[in-house]
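Posted in: Structural Biology > Protein-Ligand Complexes

Title: Requesting predicted complex, 6-O-phosphono-beta-D-fructofuranose in pocket

I'd be grateful if someone could produce the 3D structure tokens for the following input. Sequence and ligand are given below.
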Amino acid sequence: MSFPKINPTTTKAWQKLDAHFEAIHDAHIQELFTSEKGRRKAMTIVWEDLILDYSKNRVTPETLQLLLQLAEECKLKDAIEAQFSGEKINENEDRAVLHTALRDFSNMKPEVKAALDKMRDFSEKIISGNWKGHTGKAITDVVNIGIGGSDLGPAMVTEALTFYKNHLNVHYVSNVDGDHVMETLKKLDPETTLFIIVSKTFTTQETLTNAKTIRKWFIENASEEAVSNHFVAVSTNLAAVESFGISEQNVFPMWDWVGGRFSLWGAVGLSTCCAVGYDHFEELLKGAQAMDSHFKDTAFDANMPVIMAMLSIWYNNFFQTETEAVLPYSQYLSKLDTYLQQAVMESNGKSIDRNGDPVDYQTGTIVWGSTGTNAQHAFMQLLHQGTKLIPTDFICYTASLYGNKDHQEKLLANCYAQADALAQGTYGKQVENNYKRFEGNSPSNMLKIEKLTPNSLGKLIALYEHKLFVQGVIWNIYSYDQPGVELGKKMAIDLLSKK
Ligand code: F6P
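-- Reply #1 --
Done. Output follows.
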């Protein structure tokens, strides 16, 4: 089987969607609820501890049927099969795309299992205090030095799992901003700090500059011999790691079949693993594994990532929307949007199709957002009464972790009210004052999760990973390379060499 290379605009479904769009694009969500009995139930997917209610979208059953026909005609099923079976679907780099293998406990690759075992041993030693710093003291602080996928995933997950955290303080240094490095070092004691240098290539300018500065600071405050107690690395580039002065037993592996922005599930997640302990880390992987099975084995009409992806395509390619908001009603998920920006925009910000031709339709969506209710007091005015159509994902948890009912009820009431207000507006009401009129008809998905656990977080992240994969398949682009970031890197090096 080979990865499909179908221009979506040449399909029958696309032509039908064009005509269908003309017929229904003005229909108001409120009218759809009135005319379609049982709409909410029909447009809700309940799976394990997740509920996706997508009834507040500008779609009819016919729209959905056509979108799924588009998925069929673009051979999505074959594409999923190709990805999971390890075909080299990242053709430009001649690589397989197997981040799902990092969490496949039913058929785990021996090297993945060995890496997880090493992470378990190491994190247990750090947490228990059995791993000693150079003066015999236990580790109190862990610093992750990495950027992009070597930073955003672990930083987001560690923040999201704060409730499950142990006593270790975990810090993230990514930007090649010397002031930020110094502010971080100011808080640290070289006797009790562990540095994890994370770089798939071990050539990234920012990471290597930060790592060298930090190593110098460390040697000035400790000694060269002490480096081995305080520095470990996660990389595919063993030679470069060794020449940095980190011995092989302190290196955790990465593989070329896992893209940087999909790597939090393996050793790139070592800082998270130290922060929450291995068992919680494994639960995160198991949640993602469950979502992988859901994605792989569920019919498209009940498949959360497929439905979310196809709805997003409907807005992006027919309504011509530019952006999507993701609004988690949980402060724990404050870093989700930044993480998603890399995952989605580095993957699908492409304009050459899989046949090597320029596309003549829109691809990658722009993702942005912030946590509710903060967002309501910041940018929601524009979503309610501005001129732009912005499809929105609301994410909320039924239960709070500390069980504070009063706060949780208010948080949830606000979340539901925003989704209702966006959909309904003042539709059907007499509003004399134009300034108080709300069009409504702004689409949203409501993703309701029982509780924020490592397992449900794994499901949530994998849901978005699969959503962006589906979109890349339909848009006929390669989602797993990122050649667009290279030119700027080279130009920065050229500028520096002219100094
Ligand atoms: O420049 C983009 C990028 O290549 C990302 O894809 C990647 O996550 C990041 O840089 C960091 O790369 P590395 O892990 O090799 O340092």
